[in-house]
């Protein structure tokens, strides 16, 4: 009978009871489950291995395709018939040209016959690199009128431009303008000729790309004033669009100055004044003739222009002879208000009405575009439907370092000296302090990247300089009028250091700014050009310094290279120079901390429901 006794393991304890039938079954189930689990894991592992193998195979194949493509470089074919050239292709062209030379021919790639032995190749291999679309710039952009930066041979004396009105010549000398700058010496006579011939030939539209501070405003203001002097009836005949309130105000002042002694009235609509106030400045109601314009030249921002087009009764631009877009690249970026659409709509509606009423101007206005960084993107310019456009650009000394296509794209004044300082993030404010002290800078604009950083830096500089230098800040947090007041103070040297955001980077004309410091490195070349352009204006000398952290250096250099600037020097400020200032720096940082905390508390207090109730 012992033969039929199953000797089961009873555990270490011999006295343990023999398990019952049900526990026996549950144990068996567990074993079966474990077996099933192992089986599932095994099949999962196999699946994973299979996928990994397939992925590896795909990578191998992709690498192989890449290798094959690299081995057969297909050159970009010369294309002279297409209308456009993509600007980016210029940069890429150099590399593709090099590789073309290396290959030395234009043959199509054929698969290696050895590798395909035994296979029938149907048709041609499909691994042919796609041809790049090479757009060609329109002729007028490729063949600009180059304005020499050296004025020799240009009609630079005021009396050299014979057709210029005597009254304007007198105003020029009254305002200290003795000679014309190159852009003025070329553009003013051109526009005066076009205006004189306009009854016979429709004048061409023009685009002018000239450095910051080169005198572009007078280049368009004087011919426009001269052309409109003859009119007796008041209509808006010139519309000047600028991207910001401050710039529009600045240009308005120039028009006001040079239209003195004429019948011309200049208007300004930017949103600085209440809408109704602006409406009253623009339109008069006459019992006999209805609504009449009160201005001949209107300077405006795009947003406010759209508002008046939509809401101001009697606002009529149909007699427009000149449409001037200053800082044109910036204004054209302003899609927010779609000003161009509204303007075109207005002009076409008026034209339909007018044909039924009387003889009115049927020709579209002459368009004059100006900027230091004028867009050469044909698509953007095409939006303006330019009529036989002509481009005027500067002959830049930096252009020699770039491809010929660059000519005049982004140029800076030749009087500008550019430098950079490499510093750590922690010591940046101290480096700035040292730089201002050692270079004895006292009329200096410092650019940061945000409102917050402008505010903090201004507090810190105030703490560092104490009474030595007066520091103020300008950003979008300030209202228009306070901004204008601060700019005036800075102009009159009542403020030494002006810390600001890029709101002040474009177009603002402050004479004799000694230095522009980019405390936060500019992200784009355009920003750099406009910031640096606040100094070295109107033929004066100026310094532009950029503070960089080490990782920013290569990007910064590459950015400047796009403008042909390869010789920008480094300015060294050593750790030894900074050592004696460390204690002062620490104290100033503490002051900054306290000041920010105090402001935080004030803000909280003002926001608390109790205060709000009190205020009510
Ligand atoms: N012929 C001249 N002689 C002396 N000063 C001039 C002359 N033309 C212009 N200026 C002065 O040069 C300064 C710069 O002129 P303007 O603001 O027109 O430059 P810009 O080319 O428009 O610069 P940005 O591109 O920065 O707007 C102004 O203060 C202006 O009064």
Keywords:
8-stranded parallel beta sheet, Rossmann fold, disordered C terminus, hydrolase activity, globular, P-loop_NTPase, 616 residues, binds adenosine-5'-triphosphate, hydrolase, disordered N terminus, 7-stranded parallel beta sheet, RNA-helicase_DEAD-box_CS, 43% helix, alpha/beta, nucleotide-binding, 17 strands
Précis, in short:
The protein has three domains: 1-6 and 18-131, no CATH class; 139-394, 3-Layer(aba) Sandwich (Rossmann fold), CATH 3.40.50.300; 416-602, Rossmann fold.
CATH superfamily of the largest domain: P-loop containing nucleotide triphosphate hydrolases
The separation of the N and C termini measures: 105 Å
Count helical runs: 20
Outline the low-pLDDT stretches: 1-17, 72-109, 352-358, 611-616
Main sheet: strands, sense, barrel: 8 strands, parallel
What fold name goes in the CATH topology slot of the largest domain?
Rossmann fold
User: For the CA atoms, what is the radius of gyration?
Assistant: 36 Å
- Estimated helix fraction: 40-55%
- According to DSSP, the number of beta strands is 17
How much of the polypeptide forms β-strand, as a percent range?
5-15%
Instruction: Summarize model confidence as the mean pLDDT.
Output: 82
Total separate domains: 3
Structural class, from helix and strand content? alpha/beta
CATH top level assignment of the largest domain: Alpha Beta
Strand order of the largest sheet: 1-10-2-9-8-3-7-4
Unique bound compounds: adenosine-5'-triphosphate
Give the oligomeric state of the chains in this entry, treating copies of one chain as homo and distinct chains as hetero.
single chain
Question: So, CATH architecture of the largest domain?
Answer: 3-Layer(aba) Sandwich
Task: Using the alpha-carbon principal axes, give the shape.
Answer: globular
Region (Disordered): 1-61, 596-616
Biased composition (Basic and acidic residues): 9-18, 46-61
InterPro entries: DEAD/DEAH_box_helicase_dom, Helicase_ATP-bd, Helicase_C-like, P-loop_NTPase, RNA-helicase_DEAD-box_CS
Domain Helicase C-terminal: 431-579
